[in-house]
Amino acid sequence: MSMKSGPARRRASLVLTATLAICTAFGAQAAMAQQRLLETGSSLLYPLFNLWVPVYAKTHRGVQITTQSTGSGTGIAEAVSGIAQIGASDAYMSDPLVRMHPTMLNIPLAISSQMINYNVPGLNNIHLKLSGPVLAAMYSGRVRFWDDPMIARLNPGVRLPHKQIVLVHRTDGSGDTFIFTQYLSFSTPSWNNTVSYGTTVSWPAVEGGIGAEGNPGMVNACKGTPYSVAYIGISYKQAIEAAHLGEAAIENRSGNFVLPGPRTVQAAVEATASHTPRDERISLIFAPGKWSYPIINYEYAIVNARQPDAQTAAALREFFNWALSPTEGNSERFMKEVGFVALPAPIVALSKAQIARIQ
Amino acid sequence: MKFRAWLALVAGILPASLAAIVVFLALYSWPAMHFNGLGFVVRDTWNLGNLYANPIMRHGTQVQPGATYGILFLIVGTLASTLIALAIALPMGMGAAIFLAEAVPAGLRLWISFFVELLMAIPSVVFGLWGYVVVIPFLGHHLYPLIAHSLGKMIPFFAEPTGSGYGLLTAGIVLSLMIVPIIAATLRDALVSQPVSLREAALGLGATRFEALWKVMLPGTRKTLIGATFLALGRALGETMAVLMVSGNALNYLPHRIYDPVSTMAAFIVSQLDSALQDPTGLAVRSLAEIAFVLAIISILVNALARLLLLVWNNSQRSVMV
Predict the structure, then answer these.
(1) Is the pLDDT of residue A29 over 50?
(2) Would you say B286 and B32 are in contact if contact means Cβ atoms under 8 Å apart?
(3) Total-model pTM
(4) B46 near A CB under 8 A
(5) What domain count does chain B have?
(6) Is residue B109 part of a domain?
């Protein structure tokens, strides 16, 4: 080195400086790089996440959240495998699954409900009355026509057509299937003993039954198929109205026929939420109470309590705390848009205790 | 010598990977095969059991209560949609090939051939989306009622109700559009490469243009046609996305009418994988692997059948010549 002449040394130091400068620039870039979070799963939660993320991104520039609607089954599977940081699910994880993956948390973010929709030309503007046992009979293939005495008995004075019922169900693993089959199981013993409930069930073989992908697929199949019946998450209410589909009034535990709405859902929440355990895995289906809507559920974020690094864990905690805040994510302006109901304060406290465990 | 060794290695990778896949599938799905038995291919129930209950022991295997795996409806759906696709694609592909080779002016031929081959390059999900958005409403609301009113009067399999448009016939139609280019392009090449002297000889003997084509040119391409058909068959058997989007994804029942929803093996594996991953015993995923194994076996059998057909046909031709 000492042999080098002046200009050569100057050039060398210039190169060194330039290299350093570039390195520093890259380093700064890396430090400023955005924390990326991937959310995937429930097509019912998807519209809410899509409302949340742009608003959240405005005040939290360091975090980039990508959302995907893939179905609750995928949400749980990809959160467990670590592909996604947030798995959205309408269903909580089963006991055996939690035993297999003890670090997975089931964190409620909001309360949702499910509509029973139908496409019976001429009757879509009235709310046909349906009950758990009648829906179970339809989905088991015992009731095949819309003018079946079982349906007629619930709807006196309605001229029901003698047309074959087309059953629509979800093909993908779905929290909507979970809560719908839970309603059938809790209200109809024979369904409970045969099909039972789950994110996927073995649907009884009924000719013509259609399997659809995601809530959008359910809306599309119901819209395109006269005399069909489907179960669709409340966040698709606008799509249902745009498609002029019917929305059934559903029989609750007290024998009243109710539609999903803030009042009936709130009534069901009041009747059941106080039983929520610390890990918050509980069904809110078929709640007691005069005006309780029978098909409501917690919308879960499935998250691993053990994150690969501290930044990711911090970003997740910050986002969830924002989402649960009654003035931010759980505020009326978000909830109303998708037909959800905000979590009651005691449940928020339970969720926050779980969020604190993300490390 | 070294070059030859390299070639052998590269060439050997292909059969080795096929063997590796089949062996892997067999090994991985072994617990499922053991549990399901032969009933797997003749039962009509796919039931993961109660995933929210605790696993139980049955036949020495840990399973969810109520779990049964049977895929007859998938095998029927796969074969039926493939056969419908072939029944539509074979005449269409042959017609297109003959048209391109014989009837189109040379200047235009290049362009139309180009488009036919382009059709082959379209990803299947594009066909699926198009089927979902355009074909299903059209077929369900217009064409199927028409078929039911005419053909359905005579054959119960075509009778009403025509359903929603999601189903066996729709899957067959979308599949056929995907495999027509394979048949058309391959057969056209074979027709064009037939010696001109053959046609000239036929015409010289007084054959009409049609007779020359039908009796002289086409028989010479029969081997190519069989090959292309089985290539198309292979694609239709394994097609996943497009079928998933238009077939209606029937579960646990066989189609009673040509409009009824069906599921195919390939589409079912995709649509059920996430649900299967929630089975804590892992048997559901292994049963899906067993479906893949059965599908691989069917595909291999179909291809072997094609070889056999060619062999038998070649022999019989030789004996005629002798």
Answers:
(1) no
(2) yes
(3) 0.83
(4) yes
(5) 1
(6) yes
